[in-house]
Write a structure and sequence with these properties.
heterodimer, A: mainly alpha, 3 helices, B: mainly alpha, 2 domains, 0% strand, globular
């Protein structure tokens, strides 16, 4: 309930959450296709803030 | 003060070891340095600062992600190729106009995304074979594209180093368009004149960028001689791939219109944010060119943006740890102690040197204290000039990210990379001198522009 209230706080919030979600899924797809370990670690690093923002934890 | 010095040295040491010694990406080097900083200061129980820091440049991260999706959509839809072709056909017989248009074309992705790698990876790839076909030697053409890529990174509307420096001192990204243009335009024109003098083969007007690119094969061996049958076949095949009409310009024009409307409306037009503008532009690009598989374009764009996004996350962690451990305060206090004339010299040397690892990390770690030391020296013009110095780092070894990407595009290997780097020595020194002049006379330049 709290999440829904926060996610619809303004008309732009759900649009931005959609962009963050699309970016997070695209990053995850790229990580799964990466062959180098460093590329996978970088993808994981980028996923952390994206997922936390998507969940509106931070 | 000693604990801060030791922490700072251990962070810089770890950074150099991971980036230059172990040859790992700048993102891992900055994040690794942040972790070492926490360990060196006895704060290993405070790992949450790494997560806190990862959010430091979240807004910039989203801008880069959406901007690269926009560029990938333009490229997948054939719009970049079509615009390159139109420019070459129209300006092929005029060397000066051809080089100016090529410069604008190379700069455009950097201007829109704030990333020099975006420019090198997208329009840079189209411009390089066109210049080689016009008779410009490979090394010089590569150097030209590299200069265009970093000048595009500096030019408005999006300059990520300025955004990073600004966020360090709570300075909004407002009023930078004119100073950034004044800093990027003269070198861009000078580089165009430099390359126009090497154009030896006017008459490129009939060729298209795609045909030229495919003929050059990315190897630097542009075909000599006239039009043979296979060449005509390539051209006719290429003509079939053309996108007719005005619609190829719609995504870029709508994007620029949205950016302009928000800036000139004084708040009467609601600001949807730069990421959303790029997202709208990407959707339009998918509709205005050749058929595109949307998810493939998104995935490719994010894939291209991932290394830069990683650097932003790592730089955020680095800055957060530097702040928590007192290293940032130590740097600021030390910078404030240096006389202003020497601060400028330090800026000219330190920002590109640190930028050789990452222009964004350099903006954050060196740019912020240097700007604080230069307070009162017209902060807007000063930050703009500092962004040019940080961007210069993208041309410097050991990573030399932009020349490396260009030599990869030509499949030229280490020899081509070395040739491009040698060609960049004089322009690089001149750019640093230009940044020095702007920093030294920033108040006067600011008054001139206001």
């Amino acid at each position: 309930m709290v999440y829904l209230r926060l996610a619809t706080a303004s008309w732009l919030t759900p649009v931005y959450l959609l962009m963050v979600a699309v970016t997070a899924v695209a990053v995850a797809t790229n990580v799964l296709k990466q062959r180098s370990l460093s590329g996978q670690v970088i993808g994981g690093m980028v996923l952390v803030p994206l997922l936390l923002r998507l969940l509106m934890v931070k | 003060m000693w604990p801060q010095i030791l922490t700072f040295l251990s962070m810089i040491g770890a950074f150099l070891l991971i980036a230059a010694g172990l040859r790992q990406p700048a993102a891992l080097a900055t994040a690794g340095a942040a972790f070492v900083g926490l360990a060196a200061s006895g704060r290993l129980d405070q790992l949450h600062h790494l997560v806190e820091g990862a959010f430091g440049y979240f807004d910039v991260l989203l801008i880069i992600a959406m901007a690269m999706v926009f560029m990938a959509a333009l490229e997948s839809a054939g719009i970049l190729e079509e615009i390159s072709t139109r420019i070459t056909r129209r300006l092929g017989k005029r060397p000066m106009l051809l080089s100016l248009a090529s410069m604008l074309l190379v700069m455009a992705p950097g201007m829109l995304t704030g990333s020099s790698t975006a420019a090198a990876l997208t329009t840079g790839r189209f411009v390089l074979p066109v210049l080689m076909e016009a008779g410009v030697p490979l090394a010089k053409a590569g150097a030209f594209v590299a200069l265009g890529a970093i000048l595009g990174m500096v030019a408005p509307p999006v300059n990520v180093p300025v955004m990073i420096i600004g966020s360090g001192i709570d300075m909004p990204y407002v009023g930078f368009d004119l100073p950034l243009l004044a800093i990027a335009l003269p070198p861009a024109i000078a580089a165009s004149v430099w390359v126009a003098r090497s154009v030896r083969r006017p008459g490129l007007g009939g060729r298209s960028a795609a045909a030229t690119a495919s003929e050059a094969g990315g190897t630097g061996s542009a075909t000599e001689g006239g039009r043979d049958a296979s060449s005509r076949d390539t051209d006719s095949h290429d003509d079939e791939r053309r996108i007719p009409g005005f619609k190829v310009y719609i995504p870029i024009l709508v994007l620029l219109a949205m950016m302009l409307a928000v800036r000139v409306s004084n708040g009467s037009v609601p600001d949807p944010g730069i990421p959303l503008m790029f997202a709208v532009g990407a959707v339009l690009a998918m509709l205005c060119g050749r058929p595109v598989r949307p998810w493939e374009a998104i995935e490719r764009g994010i894939g291209l943006a991932l290394p830069v996004m990683g650097v932003l996350v790592g730089a955020g962690m680095f800055v957060q740890v530097a702040t928590v451990t007192g290293v940032r305060g130590f740097l600021v206090v030390s910078a404030l102690d240096i006389p202003m004339a020497w601060v400028i010299v330090v800026a000219v040397l330190a920002l590109p040197a640190f930028g050789a690892i990452s222009a964004y990390a350099s903006s954050s770690v060196m740019g912020v204290p240097i700007l604080l030391a230069l307070l009162g020296n017209n902060e807007v013009v000063t930050a703009a000039a500092l962004s040019l110095l940080a961007a210069l780092g993208d041309l410097l070894p050991p990573i030399a990210i932009v020349p490396s990407l260009i030599s990869q595009a030509t499949q030229g290997g280490a020899q081509t990379r070395g040739d491009i780097l040698r060609r960049l020595v004089v322009p690089g020194v001149l750019l640093a001198a230009w940044a020095y002049i702007v920093l030294r006379w920033a108040p006067a330049i600011g008054r001139l522009l206001s």
